[in-house]
Amino acid sequence: MTTTSTTHARTSDITPNITPGATRQPRNHVSFEQTVRNSFTMAYRGLLKIKRTPEQLVDVTLQPIIFTLMFTYIFGGAISGNIAGYLPIIIPGILAQTVITTSVVTGVQLREDMDKGVFDRFKSMPIARISPLAGALLADTVRYLIASTLTFVMGYIMGWRPAGGLGAVIIAGLLVIVCAWAISWVFAFFGVIARSASSVQGISFLVLFPLTFLSNAFVPVETMPGWLQWFVNANPVSHLITAVRDLTGSGTIGSDFGLALLGAAVVVAIFAPLTVRAYMRKA
Question: CB-based burial of residue 272 (10 Å sphere; 0-12 exposed, 13-18 middle, 19+ buried)?
Fold first, then answer.
């Protein structure tokens, strides 16, 4: 009896007191440095996906070419009288529209990965829980870079010569990429809360179309009805396009440059916490 009671006593000392039916989920506490490394690793994973399935780049490769040709030859003569006079107007507009449209893919692919259980596998790995989301947002900046470069190249082939110089063109491209990355947080939020990838795409385009088409991207604001001009002038995409036109046309940085960055900062300040909070609940 003494031996048995001693054995039970020793067993109780080393066995944790676990409530029946309860399970313990290990939580990964990682440093900021490891979070950054994990995020870049996930971004590299996104680039490998593009390498293995290059058809994912169809939108960023064909869209700048098709849109530039189509809008230039359709609207060029009617708005500016000739193609050469319309190119300084349309190229910044096509650039903003193409790159911002590309940011929709962030939310769609995020939802697809969650539906396929990819993110469930990431939960069991000793990585920062936020890194799959951060990596997806980082990887898509490569898509924005490709779209920006092809738009500028297409414009140059058609005869567009930016008077602002190469440095101003690079700054304009970086500005558009930064703003598109900010807007991608909106679509990432839709990707986290939506039920399917198709619904993400549908909701995203409902937001995207007013921002891009109800702007000064294709026609002068003065040609629009007065009741519509107020929205176009307040549209942050209009400020972005005007900033790009100032940079590429004269190499100047005006107030629209600061307003475009301010709009991007506001979008990130609102949607980044909402996206992270919704994602962490599911992660």
Answer: middle
Residue 172: Cβ within 10 Å count: 29
- The residue written with tokens 């951060």 in the block is 134
Query: Cα(197)–Cα(111) distance, rounded to whole angstroms?
Result: 5
| Residues 214, 221: Cα–Cα separation, whole Å | 10
Contact present, 155 and 122 (Cβ < 8 Å): no
Q: What does the block give as tokens for 93? A: 């507009």
CA dihedral 190, 191, 196, 197 (to 10 degrees): 110
**pLDDT 10s per residue in the chain (283 long)?**
444 444 444 434 433 343 443 443 444 566 778 888 888 888 888 788 777 777 777 778 888 889 889 889 988 888 888 888 899 999 999 999 999 988 888 888 888 888 887 777 777 777 777 788 888 888 888 889 999 999 999 999 999 999 999 999 999 999 999 999 999 999 999 988 988 888 888 888 888 888 888 999 998 898 899 889 999 999 999 999 999 999 999 999 989 999 999 999 999 999 989 988 888 887 5
